[in-house]
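Internal tracking record. Fields below are filled automatically when a chain is submitted to the structure queue. Please do not edit lines marked as system-generated. If the sequence contains nonstandard residues, flag them in the REMARKS field before resubmitting.
Queue: standard
Priority: normal
Entity type: single polypeptide chain
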Amino acid sequence: MGKFTGEQILENTLIQKLITGQSQWTYREDLRNEKDLWENFRQKLEIHNKDVLNDNPLTEQEFRQIQNQLNFSSFYEAAKWLAGENGIAKVQVQREDASLGTIRLRVINRQDVAGGMSSYEVINQFESSKRSVEDLNRRFDVTLLVNGLPMIHIELKNRAHPFMDAFRQIKKYLKEGKFTGIYSTVQMFVVTNGTDTRYIASAQDTKLNEQFLTKWVDADNHPVNDYLEFADDVLSIPMAHKMVTQYTVIDNEKKALILLRPYQIHAIEAVKRASREQKSGYIWHTTGSGKTLTSYKVARNLLQIPSIQKTIFIVDRVDLDQQTTASFTSYAENDVIEIDETNNVNDLIKKLLSDERRVIVTTIQKLNHVMKRISNMTSKKYEQMTQLKVAFVIDECHRAVSPAKKREIEEFFIYSLWYGFTGTPIFAENAKKVMGNLPRTTEQQYGKRLHEYTVKEAIHDSAVLGFQVEYKSTLSEEELDKILKKVIKYDEANINSLEIEEKESRLPKSVYEDEGHMLNVIASILNKSRKKLGFQKGAGQTYNAILTTSSIAQAQRYYELFKQVKSGATTVMIDEETKRILPDFPKLAITYSISENEESSSLNQDKMKEAIKDYNSEFETSYTIETMRAYNRNVNDRLARKKDKYVTRSEQLDLVIVVDRLLTGFDAPCLSTLFIDRAAMKPHDLIQAFSRTNRLFDKYKKYGQIVTFQTPKIFESKVKEALVLYSNGGENVVLAPSWKEASKDFISAIKELKKVAPNVLEIEIDSASHLELKKFVKAYQIFDKTYAAVQVYTDFDPSQMGADFPIDPIEIEKYHGKYVNALDELRSGPIIIDPIEIDIAYELESIKTEEINYEYILMLIQAFVPSGDDEYELVAKEDKKAVIEVNRYINDLARNNPKLAGLMEQLWRDIRQDPENYRDKNVSSLLENMIQDTQYTIVHNFSEKWHVNEDELSYVVANYNSKKEKQSGENELKYSADYLSYKENTEEPVSKLRYWRTVRNDLEKLIREEILPLQRR
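SYSTEM-GENERATED OUTPUT FOLLOWS
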């Protein structure tokens, strides 16, 4: 049996690491509960504000005012406060002595790192007050305090456990409402088992998504996993202070806190260094890795450099229509950033000439007007403008600014620095065409690369997902040959001598404009993509997709055909399996650019009017062709689903048909699939388009999925070429296995499972050795993963089970039953270290469950709770569709779990009746409290009824294991029983001989019927 370093030793070693050497951390062994922390904070506050307090210390009543201000309803609210005024977070106090008036006290200064008023302390084993039946002794591991406030919380497990156990522990504490009071200021969670370490921005339990656990990497993208190395790099001062003040972003739209990833931080530092040396350059961060966020922070941080007077963030006009401005507005809500969306050129000139140190976000078109206008103004203003020391930050730097335009601006702003951001740089291999002496590559246009983070590195770090590409054809090779014979008049010998790629290149375009081809594509999207679109997760939680076509006319034809298929007017039918989960599938929209000058413009406008009318009817909106920009923005929002409103199925889109719109600069994490019915694009356009799909979303989204429907061989070679270019020769890391490889892996896994357990009925869980159980569990987990993987491909057909794949659904069900029991046995047994590593917390991926997703209902209800400055009317608008959806989910839940559904229904009813009473409350914690209160009552009533000790009873309930004959703590409970007292207070008492057996049976029934249903989620 192996021996692991205990958690306590890991904890002590971490604390020693933090407080030794150059460290400014101080260990405070004396701070162990909330009262201690508030007292410590009060002392810090008074020391740092001697000038404001003017020898009049705070009274108890005044300090209570401060405590109330710092008891935040969410981490997001705490982050908004922490952003402060000009970077200083303050509290306001109305002095008890009226003659002293109202004062404002400084708490934390974002810029005041490691000096002045900043203090840094480490505490451990903080005692959190008991709040639940099973909450016997909650102690937090390690917390880091800045100026007395908890800012970073670290949970440790020893190496016998995965770091995910520490993450689950934090989620449990959150659900129980532990991070309240002074702990509501926490901005960052760190989880580790010593070997692997991750960090994540603080959020409520239903919003704390494991996909966003981030590993640290150094400036050269080498991983830093060990907890002590992580402490060196991230938890040292000044870094820890910067992490929670300067490297955070508050997303006003999502009402969430974002912590930058390491490569974003390294890029910001690289730009700062370059600007101090008066050098320009570019940042290559792969598309999907948060480039807009990085460029926002770079623009914001450049203001800290005294030699730069203005930072101008340039966005492409198309991006203004899409998401960049929306993202910026959302990030800038609590920052000194000016989003300049007006068309007033004089206003922009005024801002550029003012002394205010602000970031200005504008377009290249607007800057053009400024240069023209200023050239005709007084020489003084012209000189002032042209002499400005300005830094230009350009997102999507090749689309936003052409080489010629950049040269023109540089000749005007003679002291300008340029920082370009791109996910797809232009290299010598795909250089722009020769145009005089204008730059042809990114480096020629912007200068040296300052930091790079390629798609290969991003996938390796789990910052984005890999790609799974399927190359489909609606033509067999035989049909291909027939077409070539007919159209190009090739004879048999000529055709046979051609490679498939050459045949494809000779195909006329009209082949793919044929309605038969288009209906085949539609059939594949509707009936072969359920797994791709996450149907197994149920209504409201499916993913969405984009279909890109070769032309506006083709997009319009697809839109019409989809409508015909939905109405049953074509040969293509929507499968019953599809309809069962989403009866209204597919909800679709179309978007393309309308130009006034084109001959086809009138037709395009008419078709668009029709599509907008359909959209209005589906979503109860009122857009017109005149408000096309607003329509596009709404399509973007609905596809992106970042706002709470779009959590409900009634407000969701499944598919948007586009030509080029949304294929660059558009961020929708819930978008899983790009269907391509057009010829292969250029390398950078391909990578940009692919990257719409590979954003992290939830644990079920494994890849960004691409399905192409034209010239499969040509497409495959073009994709390989693009991936070689943009992952420095590591294209194999980027792509998921082909269907052939996935099938082979699945067949191997089936054979291995049957080798380990040839006859499922002969597996004896109780008598099998620990090693045998582990072998079986490991084999089943590999089988399950490969089964889930093959189901995602359009080639997969359930009829292959038992034929091509030598296992049938009945066998799987039997193996699954044995697997669940084997896992339970291993979970409840001792930890034995042997060569077979299994994941005890593994969640089955391939088994389709009809259970209602508990967290999804809570998210729906949360949308009805007003928060911040929201008016309730704006929050809910009595959204009838959403109300129906919540009611339906609760009714469904009631069929499986009436106890839990009853509590949820009560909470839902109370919120609807009096929403104000629930303002800023977290639905998950409210429900958890109701569950705990119900359990308290059940336990208390049982204790009263049978006259047993309530604490001993709580212990038995909390540690109940259905597989054990005798429960932990049962003897102590039996000794605590008072039969005489029971007999005296009971009308028809059972005899002493039957008493304990009756108590035990009643307790068993109570736990099974009353307690366990409340713990099932």
